[in-house]
Amino acid sequence: MHSAPIYQWADRSVTKHFYLDESGNTGDLCKVGAHPSFGGQRMFSLACIGIDDINALAHEVERLKSLHKLHGTELKSTQTKAKPKFVSDLARFLHSREWPVFIELVDKHYLVMANIVERLVTLHLLGTEPSRGALFVKNTMADYIALHAPDDLGPLYAKACQKQNRPDCRRVFQRLIWWSHRSQRDRDIAAGIERSTRASLKLFEKLHPYEAVRSVLPIPDRSKRDGTIWLLPNISSFTTIYGRINRHFNGDIADVTFVHDEQVHFDKIIEVNKALAESLRDDLSRVKLRTADYSFQSSPRLTFQNSKESLGIQTPDVIAGFASRYIYQKLWQPETINAEHDQAFHLIDRFTRANGVTGINYVAPRELLYALGLSPLANYEDVGQL
Question: Does 252 lie in the same domain as 165?
């Protein structure tokens, strides 16, 4: 995972209510038939804004809606799709209030490939101590696979998730080995992927069939209908924002309240993963990150609310929606972007400053961030002892 430089808000004593909403959620990423483009919704975004004066926000939003001729009582991201100047003015208002803004921008295809690296390519490293060097190697492999691997790799992994059997898992190994052996983009990286995958395949074949399959697939969540969900970008994004806010407040988060957009199918999964992150704080905090702290010492409140009833939730919906659309269009449909879109994103990107935790955290290949004119930094600082 790569992060652009991020800054820390000066006053941590006021804002304790954080509103969250997402954009680009297509559910489980490991669906059979899933294509790297994800039907034009390749980017996922979760935005979280600390708001201490909802009345001031309501007054400004009404003024901006009148100014930019937006109608209706509910503020929706889809309404502002063709109104980048509205997004610019909203971002300026958030800057003027100095409210902390946290955004996770996730390339879904990259997230799937990163899971393949973590669970399958480096299976032979299971049980070894994490290290800065190992994290760098995994990031490099994920970048290369996300950019250069064949389009059928993700669908093959999705099929393995759905089928949960040894032959389908083995086919993912075999496809990776066949491709990496022939890939010429960077022979050193490709050869490293091939060696690591071959070593992991040997271990996979030695394991008991149940353990072998369980080891190479993501740790699943259970839906309300008792279905298996393999990979949800909103879960990892929420956990990351949780860790970032914990660092933002230097661990003093007992009085924090998260107000998340109502999740009909996934609210319980979010709650369970929040509790899991808290229970695994000693394990998660071994990896020292610049922008997050997972050594949770207290448990903030998590609530869910219908966005129609909450301007606090509607506001991050607008920011998340614009950010995910902008990145996708800028990279893959640049002809649809004009100077007004660039200005609006520039103002959103300004929530990101050096040596802090607010702003945008990118989960995407380094090369894509370079294409956006960004200079990403690795998010990890150091790795503690087991």
Answer: no
Contact 359, 6 (CB under 8 A): yes
DSSP state of 384: -
- Domain endpoint, select from 198, 220, 242: 220
- Total-model pTM: 0.91
How many whole angstroms separate alpha carbon 211 and alpha carbon 122? Answer: 16
Sign of the CA dihedral 174, 179, 181, 182? Answer: positive
Asked if residue 161 and residue 93 are part of one domain, the reply reads: no
Which residue has tokens 């804004």? 49
Range of the domain at 96: 2-108+222-383
Query: Could you report the average pLDDT of every consecutive run of 10 residues in the chain (386 residues)?
Result: 41 75 86 76 96 96 95 88 96 96 96 97 86 87 97 95 96 98 97 98 97 94 76 92 94 95 83 86 69 90 93 97 96 96 96 84 94 79 46
SS3 content of the chain, % helix, strand, coil (to 5): 50, 15, 35
Distance from C-alpha of 226 to C-alpha of 181, rounded to nearest angstrom: 40
User: Tens digit of pLDDT for each residue in 186-226?
Assistant: 999 999 999 999 999 999 999 999 999 999 999 888 776 65
CA angle in degrees (0–180, nearest 5) for 103-105-106: 145
Number of domains composing the chain: 2
CATH code where residue 250 lies? 3.30.420.10
Question: Looking at the structure, do residues 43 and 18 belong to the same domain, yes or no?
Answer: yes
Is residue 310 domain-shared with residue 353, that is, in the same domain?
yes
- Tell me how far CA of residue 309 lies from CA of 14, 37, 55, 227, 376, in angstroms: 23, 33, 14, 30, 37
Distance in angstroms (rounded) separating the CA atoms of residues 161 and 270: 21
Q: Are 11 and 37 within one domain?
A: yes
